[in-house]
Amino acid sequence: MAAEPFWTTPSLAFSVEERWRVSIRGERISDKVPHAPNAPGGGFEPAEEKPRYLDGTLALDWRPLDGWQLRARIGRRSLTSLRDSYTVDGLHFGVARRLPSPHPAIGLEMLLDVDLNRADELYKNSWTEVGGSRLSEARLFDASDDSVMLSLAARAPLFYSSSVAVLIGAGRTRARHGRLAGVGTDAEGCRYEFGASAGAGWLELLESCDSLVTFRETYADESGIQRRLGFSPSSDLEYTGSVAQAGIAFEHRAGDVEVSLGYVYRRRDRGAFDRRIREQGGRTVASSHTTSLRAGFAASATLGVNVGLHYRSTAYLDELPLLYNVFTSERFLKNNLAFSIGATLAF
Asked: Domain range spanning residue 230?
């Protein structure tokens, strides 16, 4: 789903004169991580301090007619841990439509959000235990996800220039990849190099092991890799699931300053995909919540600046579904606190 909480993607709160908005935004986690990947010949590469998370986006909003708003956003995210480092490019498209309201003081909006993420390569350098085997490395090529969310939002005034907004929505998420390659050790201690694409796969012994001196097999499906290494490149790495969300936000404006506090809860159902992870001893993540505190300041009639603090119960599960699979599901059990800063030019 979108990285921004619902009350900012997209919003119909344009002034009468405005038709366009251009926004830039950056987000990061305050600490750094000593990044030291496994070296090809054994041991580790020299540690290098890197930001744990960086996110930069550029967005364009357009109000073609009263009651309609369109949004397009491009962005890049980088995540770094002790052994792994990922870079993901993203696109977001949003449409908001004002609906007839049963009360003049209540504003109703229908929102459609479409998110697309892609990474040329996701290289998992850290070791992973799965299906009785140990993977020392795995590479997902042309990894991507796409998400569609349809939501209904309502806003109502409270008191002293304050308002409350609530939201409910439902959607679908799909994650997939073009090709998988990696190195793993099976339950007997034999090291294999493997690859899979379009349902087919191959497996090759890297070094002599017990009575095996050389071994290579090519499979018309993924059953050979499943039998040797205990996981399926498609069934354990690709999924389609449903998601439901609900949220609430309180906003207050005093002159040129606006402050908001919001909360969004999301629940997912990935069906057989999560069941397979649990059967192999992994832990799944079915729910997440985000709490954001934001402050904005109108520097002029056209320029606004904003800052925010964002607490996530899961580490970017909502923003990057393509990173969730049998190798990485437990990473999303971690929470984090991030800081954001941005600017908006309206005309």
From this structure: 182-236
Predicted TM-score of the model (pTM): 0.89
Tell me, what amino acid is at 53?
A: Y
Do 93 and 108 lie in one domain? The reply is: yes
| Phi, then psi, of 31 in degrees rounded to 5 | -85, 170
pLDDT tens for 135-169 read 888 999 999 999 999 999 999 999 888 999 999 99
Dihedral sign, Cα of residue 270, residue 272, residue 273, residue 275: positive
Q: What 3-state class would DSSP assign to 247? A: strand
What are the tokens at 131? 């299906």
At 216-232, the pLDDT tens digits run 988 887 777 888 778 88
CA distance 234 to 254: 53
Residue whose tokens read 């439509």: 97
CB 340 within 8 A of CB 25: yes
Of 133, 230, 130, 139, the C-alpha closest to 179 is 139
Token pair 């998601």 is found at: 243
CATH number of domain containing 27: 2.40.128.130
Same domain, 170 and 263: yes
As given in the structure block, the two tokens for residue 226 are 């499943």
CA distance linking residue 22 with residue 24, whole number of Å: 7
pLDDT at 8 exceeding the cut of 60: no
Structure token digits, residue 287: 């729910």
∠ CA 331-332-338, rounded to 5°? 105
Domain count, the chain: 2
> How remote is the C-alpha of 89 from its chain's centroid?
11
Distance of CA 149 to CAs 25, 173, 273, Å?
A: 22, 9, 21
Q: How far apart are CA 55 and CA 40, in angstroms?
A: 29
Do residues 124 and 147 share a domain? yes
